[in-house]
Structure formats: C-alpha cells, structure tokens
Amino acid sequence: MMTRLTNAMRRMAWSRIRGVLLVLTAAAPMAACQTRPMQVAQDDDSAWYIGTKADKPFDIPLVDTERLDPKYRRQQVSYNGPEQPGTIVVDIDKRQLLLVQADGTAMQYGVGVGKAGFSWKGEARVGRKGVWPDWSPTTTMVSLNPDLPRLRKGGLDNPLGARALYLYQGHRDILFRIHGTNEPWSIGEQLSSGCVRMLNEDIADLYERVPVGTRVLVKRNGKYRV
C-alpha cells in the first residue's frame, strides 16, 4: 500500500514539474535576442580580447580567434550549393553562416544559434541594417518580465553588438536578427533564444558585403522549408 502511494505521489510531482517546464519552454522564444538571462556567464570575458578596430561611435573589440575552433573562424571556402551569389545561408546544425560568392566560393563565419527547440528556420530577406543598434523588448517580452528596460542604447554592452541585420518576410519584421555579440565564447554554441549571433568583427565584415534585400536561408537538418 505504501509503495503504491509513493509511486502515485512521484507521478503527481513529475506532472507538476513537466507543466512548469512546458510553460517556460513556450515563453523562451519571445526573448529572441536577449542573452544574459539565458546563459551562464564566463569568469573572465576580457581574456578573449586582443585589441580594437576603429569604428564609430565605438571601437570594435577584436577577439583572439585562436580560442575558437578553426571551423568557426572567418575564412573563404569552396562552395557548390545551388544558391545564387549574394545569398546568406545559415546552417543551424553546423553553427556556420555562409555568404555565397560568384566564383564557386563562400565567405564562412562561425555563429551562435538558438538552443534546442528555439532555432527558427526558413527564408527571409534583410529588411534593414543597423550600426551599433539600440535594443528594445517586444510587447510580449515586457508582459512576461515587466522589469525589462524599455530601451537599451547601442554600445559595447548591448546584446545586438556592433551591427544587426533585421530579417523580414514581405514587409513584416519577423523579430529575428543576425547580429553581433559581447559574448564571443558563445560562438559555435546553441544558447540563444533564436537569433543568429556573430563576432562583432565578423558581423561588421558581413554588413559591408550585403545590401538590404539580400536573400537569407536559415537551414536546420539540411532544410530551410518547413
């Protein structure tokens, strides 16, 4: 009798825990580009930096890329995919972003992506671009966390970093971004709530290479179509 009662109590407790996890899981995508609350900070982020690159209104901190796995360092690679030159291809599984070139190559960058269950995939375009962009929470994010600041000005501590490419479908901002990060150790990881993050120096490089209107394909499991 006692064993049956104990088992029943365990099942009830697990049911409650699972319910809480489902609520948290449903809420997490709403914080698409907010990072710090979702991650464990490193002990000494400053150890990642080796200098700066002149930029306005802030200099871009340069990362010691020797700390990165070589596959996440910016490099030109061979490319034989079907996409037209000028297309951005994000491979969620490989944690890589490629900008297709006209000569059978692509510029390849390492990226950080959304955690399991929160990575968006699909086709979009660059609807607008921002330099040291401001960050604002969505209405849904504020409803979930009323203490969020309503505006965080662009700067070194801004979660969008030095540049942002805003993804649109038609005329609608879909609230997903390709942007810089002040957490270089997160490149190659699956930690964010959906946005694609790059080293600040890499997003600045990509920003100069792509115009508004650029086609963006975000793939997962080798596919970008749902």
SSE order and pairing:
Elements: H1 2-27, E1 49-53, E2 60-63, E3 75-78, E4 88-91, E5 96-100, E6 105-110, E7 113-114, E8 122-131, H2 139-144, E9 163-169, E10 172-179, E11 190-192, E12 196-197, H3 200-209, E13 215-219
Parallel strand pairs: 4-13, 7-11, 10-12
Antiparallel strand pairs: 1-2, 3-6, 4-5, 5-6, 8-9, 8-13, 9-10
Tell me roughly what share of residues is in helical segments: 10-25%
Strand order of the largest sheet: 3-6-5-4-13-8-9-10-12
Based on the structure given, which CATH architecture of the largest domain is correct? Answer: Beta Barrel
- The computed structural class is alpha+beta
Sheet-strand content, in percent, reads 25-35%
- Which H/E pattern describes the elements? HEEEEEEEEHEEEEHE
Question: Given the structure, what is the number of helices?
Answer: 3
The CATH fourth-level homologous superfamily of the largest domain: L,D-transpeptidase catalytic domain-like
- The level 1 CATH classification of the largest domain is Mainly Beta
- Global outline: globular
Mean pLDDT: 82
Protein name: Lipoprotein-anchoring transpeptidase ErfK/SrfK
GO molecular function, one term: peptidoglycan L,D-transpeptidase activity
Signal peptide: 1-31
Active site: 179 (proton donor/acceptor), 195 (nucleophile)
